[in-house]
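ingest -> validate -> predict -> emit
validate: passed (alphabet ok, no gaps, 272 aa)
predict: started
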Amino acid sequence: MILASLLDFHWFSDPQAWGALTTLTLLEIVLGIDNIVFISILVDRLPEAQRAKGRLIGLSLAMGARMLLLLSISWIMSLKNALFSIPVHPALWDMMPTAEQHGGMLGISMKDIILLGGGFFLIWKSTKEIHHKLEGEEESHSTGKAASFGAVLVQIAMIDIIFSLDSVITAVGMVNDPTRVSLMMVAVVISIGVMMVASGTISSFVSRHPSVKMLALSFLILIGTALMAEGLHFHIPKGYIYFSMAFSLAVELLNLKLRAKDTTAAPPAAQI
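emit:
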């Protein structure tokens, strides 16, 4: 069944399918921005010579995770089934539109657990990075190339799974036809390709500007909080989150431009 749908490219002749492919690809790119930012911050702790390799492997892992999850669509959809239930105050039900009630209890699925764990990991890692920046602490790379590079790849792989799960569930929901695995895979390959091209520029920009890096870490805390809220079925519209991120980034870019202008216009120091 999966192999047949994987090799089914009849949708090439369907104009509506091309529209879905375009929309899905753009959405995958937008959803992948979080992934790029996190990878950029992690590889920034590697020696300069290893950063490009780290980004390439990180995004390749992201593509591999998405492909494997797409090949396991039936398993992915089963992750929504409740494993156990927890008590919830009646006043909170109106704030949880996607929650499944089980005799007044909130059903918790494997997807919810993954989102909660992923959100907590993002908040913990971002807070730790902010602490390093504020305290001026830097992790030593004296433990050797394999140890530091391997540790970064493990963290990238962990968060790739979280972002890939969200991405694949979104893709399945958008296409509304789980049999069109080939269409979703084409969208994933195109979006990851675009992200690979853009990741170097984004990573370099974030690395050169400490204030932008701090802003990016704050974004990741925001995203981690949203993931944990989603894991508990408190719905936060993604549009609000992306608008907040875009607005904050626009203000920071204006600040960077203003600082650059002030630096250029500053008079030379008086000679004594």
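The chain has one domain: 2-256.
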